[in-house]
Amino acid sequence: MEAPLAASHTLANRRAIGKHGILVLHGFGIQVRVERGHLFCSWGIADERCTIRLPRVHHGLRRLVCIGSDGYVSLEALHWLSSQDASFLILDRRGKPLVVCGPSAPSDARLRRAQSLAFANGTALRISKAIIRQKLDGQSTLVRDMLQNAVAATAIEKFRDELPDADSIESVRIIEAQAAKQYWSAWASVPIRWPRKDERRVPEHWKCFGSRISPLTHLLFSDNSFQVLLRAKDVKECLHAREQDNV
Q: Which residues pair with 40 in a beta bridge?
């Protein structure tokens, strides 16, 4: 008896790439190569495979992300991506960046000088305060409006209001950590909904957000840790594009 053929799905470009221009390949046996001028990508698990072919025009691709360590990317494919000003990333299954490359602008000596002096002249501290202030504003709004926890939201706002008095990066980190404790405590008892058919197979500790303990046993924090690593990768890519140092 003949073995069943592997299921392969050819995806429409818009469906696979999305409005932000990001194409994510995951699974095993990832393939990225060029065929007749088109970028050909194949990915998936076992016999469930997806493929896509991108022409050189009107493809909408801005970033190609490969998650995994099994497969190959041809040199011709890298040239194709470079010619289209699209960035390319390889992440392991825990989100650690293995390869990050993309278009870069000409080096600007003034930017590099400003970056090197940022810690000494206080610019780095001002930037850190501004970033963390926006983060805590967002956390307090989410906790108050979505989680209906006014006590935690008020506590986060209290720490936010201490930022102007922070005199070092370390002080900003301490404030951020104290606010984070309040933020994640507000999530601890929030239930996670699963499809009814899967309910019996889901471990009990995956049915609520719980405390921020381990990315291996708590689903939310595994996902969030992966997202944080992606954001860190984005920052590195932006620095590379502007020929600045990763500090």
A: 33, 53
DSSP 8-state symbol, 49: E
- Residue 4's φ and ψ, nearest 5 degrees, are -65, 145
Beta strands 87-91 and 97-101, pairing class: antiparallel
Half-sphere exposure of 75 (CA within 13 A, CB side): 0
Domains and CATH numbers, the chain: 7-101 (3.100.10.20), 109-241 (no CATH)
**pLDDT, tens digit (0-9, with 9 covering 90-100), for 37-88:** 999 999 998 888 899 999 999 898 999 999 988 899 999 999 999 999 999 9
3-state secondary structure 123-164: HHHHHHHHHHHHHHHHHHHHHHHCCCCHHHHHHHHHHHCCHH
Nearest to 188 by CA among 170, 153, 163, 213: 213
Global pTM reads: 0.57
* Phi (first) and psi of residue 215, to 5 degrees: -70, -10
Q: 146-160 in b/e burial notation, b at 16+ Cβ within 10 A?
A: ebebeebbebbbebb
Helices (H), the chain: 13-17, 75-83, 109-121, 123-145, 150-160, 169-187, 219-241
Q: Is 172 left (phi over 0), alpha (psi -120 to 50) or beta?
A: alpha
Q: What is the pLDDT of residues 151-207, one digit of tens each?
A: 999 999 999 999 999 999 999 999 999 999 999 999 988 888 888 888 888 888 788
Smallest CA-to-CA distance from 62 within 243, 188, 237, 239 is with 237
Q: What residue type is assigned to position 240 of the chain?
A: H
Cβ proximity of 57 and 37 under 8 Å: no
